[in-house]
Structures are given as C-alpha cells and as structure tokens.
C-alpha cells in the first residue's frame, strides 16, 4: 500500500498528547509548491498563532511571502514568529489584535499595508466556537460566537477592501469557514455565522469585482489542531468517523489549499466555496461528536 504523502495522525492512538502538527512538522512537511511561488507576495493571516493559521504562516513563509499573523495572545504569535524565523530566516510580523474590535482591525490593516506597500491576500482564519445544544446557548455565548466569526471576519474584509480601493490595488480574501451545508448539531451558532460569511463572500465577490478584489471561502471538515481542546474526549474519538475516508485532516491540507488560492493558478476563482472534508458532506450523519441515543438506533455513528 502507498504511504500517505503527509503524516496523518492515528486517531486511535491514546499515547498522543500533541494535537495537530508540531513546529518541526511544519518546517519540514513536503509541499507540492515551488519554493519561490510567493516571492514578493504579502499575506495577512488572522489566528496565525496556532493550528491551521500557523501552518499557513509557515508554508507562506517557506514559499517566499511576507507574512503577518494576528490573534489575541501575544505569546502564541511570538512563538510562531520565532519558529518560522528559525526555519526559514524570514521575519513574520505580529499583531496582538482582537478581530472583534473594528478600530484595532483598521489600525492593523493600515500598519501592515504601510510597512509592506500593500497586502495581496487576506486570510480570515481566526474563529471558533464551543459545542453546546442550541436550546441552551446563553445570550453571551451566542453573541461571542457571532461576534467573532461573522462580525470579526466582516471588519477584516471591509477594512482590507477599503484600503485596496483607496490604493487602487487588487486584492484577494480567503475566508476559512466550516462545512455547514447540512447543518451541524451542537454548533448552530457557528453554522449561522459561517453561513453568513459564505453568502457575504459570494455577494461582495460580485460587488467588489470592479475594484479587482476577489473573495473565496474554504470549508474545512474535521482537521486535527490545537483547537480540538474545545471538545470532550468522547467526541474526539468519533470525529474521524464523520467522513468516508475515516480520517482527520491536518492543517497542511488546508494550508496548501490556501497557497493554491493565493497563487496565480487560481486567478479566475471568485465567489467560490472549496470544501476540504474527506467527503463528509456526502456521508452519513451530521453529528461529528456522536448522536444522542434518541437518534442512534444501530450505533451508526
Ligand atoms: C461535540 C460536537 C461538536 C460539534 C462541532 C464540531 C466542529 C468540528 C469542526 C470544527 C472545529 C473547530 O473549529 S476547532 C477550533 C476551535 N477553536 C476555537 O474555538 C478557538 C477560539 N474560540 C473561542 O475563543 C471561544 O470559543 C469563543 C466563544 C468563540 C470566543 O470566546 P470569548 O473569549 O469571547 O468567550 P469566553 O469568554 O470564552 O466565553 C463567552 C461566553 O461563551 C459561552 N461559552 C464559552 N465557552 C463555553 C463552553 N465550553 N460551553 C458553554 N458555553 C460556553 C459562555 O456563555 C461564555 O460566557 P461566561 O459564561 O460568562 O464565561
Ligand atoms: N479544526 C477544525 O476541524 C475546523 C476548524 N475550523 C475553523 O478554522 C479556523 C482555525 O481553527 P483551528 O486552527 O482548528 O483552531 P485554533 O483554535 O488553533 O485557531 C483559532 C485561532 O483564532 C484566534 N482567534 C480566536 N478568536 C480571535 C479573535 N477574536 N481575534 C483574533 N484572533 C482570534 C486564536 O488565537 P487567540 O485565542 O490567541 O486569539 C487562534 O489562534 C477557526 O475559525 C475554526 O473554527 C472550521 C472547521 C473545522
């Protein structure tokens, strides 16, 4: 049997404490892309201090891009900057910015544009949610998820677009959403926010075409990252059963797709949603963490 091209963690290995790829993995993972693919390219990645955003920051830097990452936790950003510097010799710019604060977003986009001469690709990857039955959401919990994933993403999109318009510069936005086509029980807040982002993106992909701004989304399925800490162990044991490949994706699967979209090869892709989920959208039941007994008649999940 052929070995997989990239490492896929064994979901049943109880000895693994690490969730997702290590910095050593990210420095050494093979890539299909040419090492100078993104020379001269400027990329801002929100949530770039961990998980998929960190993998994107590593890969973009390895391919020659000038990268900035933002998040709420300075230590995570600094650590990522140092690890990428060590692996690639490149300088990653860090912004301790909460995307829920529009003034802070405005200042970050202005600064990174001024420092670099202009952003080429904005990747809105920051986000998340907690698992809970919708009927039990508190107002604060609902607002936290909507404010992060919908409002925060929008402040970033609008500020970048305004700056591109005033600079007369073309730009590209890639929004990381989720695979929400059939809904996702215990994640209704995030489904609402991500569906909002997908249709916001499709709409402005048309509105902003005259400004030479393209907008696309990527919908990951179950991708093993540090973010899995949000979920109970029992649910994690079942996540890989949510797709017919019976696998978890990893951050590199998503990072390589982002680099493809950022490259000239994707110049004619606009207003699209690309799903990376091992076939989850077509498969079985919609409860990644397992169904309540009410539904689970034959133990199918
Ligand atoms: C299994 C099936 C899977 C089903 C779903 C399976 C999805 C699989 C695929 C997706 C995987 C991923 O996205 S993995 C990536 C996950 N990564 C993340 O989620 C990281 C970022 N997330 C966050 O920062 C937080 O979750 C988020 C709520 C969005 C923003 O946080 P804030 O800092 O604003 O909020 P907090 O102060 O933590 O919480 C604000 C309020 O939210 C509510 N709240 C917060 N955590 C809560 C919790 N665990 N349970 C209930 N309620 C909670 C409370 O009301 C909180 O108020 P108080 O009561 O006053 O405290
Ligand atoms: N892993 C998966 O299976 C899937 C993940 N996703 C989504 O993909 C994205 C990346 O997730 P993943 O890498 O797995 O998880 P992580 O939890 O590692 O990444 C989320 C990142 O977003 C940052 N972030 C969260 N809230 C804010 C905020 N208000 N302002 C700025 N930064 C913020 C976090 O940093 P900090 O807390 O320091 O601010 C963190 O670095 C998220 O939007 C996630 O919901 C979607 C589908 C599946």
TrEMBL record:
Its EC number is 1.3.1.38. It is found in: Peroxisome. One of its GO terms (biological process) is fatty acid biosynthetic process. It catalyses: a (2E)-enoyl-CoA + NADPH + H(+) = a 2,3-saturated acyl-CoA + NADP(+); (2E)-dodecenoyl-CoA + NADPH + H(+) = dodecanoyl-CoA + NADP(+); (2E)-tetradecenoyl-CoA + NADPH + H(+) = tetradecanoyl-CoA + NADP(+); (2E)-octenoyl-CoA + NADPH + H(+) = octanoyl-CoA + NADP(+). GO terms for molecular function: trans-2-enoyl-CoA reductase (NADPH) activity. Belongs to the short-chain dehydrogenases/reductases (SDR) family. Interacts with PEX5, probably required to target it into peroxisomes. Participates in chain elongation of fatty acids. Catalyzes the reduction of trans-2-enoyl-CoAs of varying chain lengths from 6:1 to 16:1, having maximum activity with 10:1 CoA. Has no 2,4-dienoyl-CoA reductase activity. This is Peroxisomal trans-2-enoyl-CoA reductase. It comes from Croceicoccus marinus.
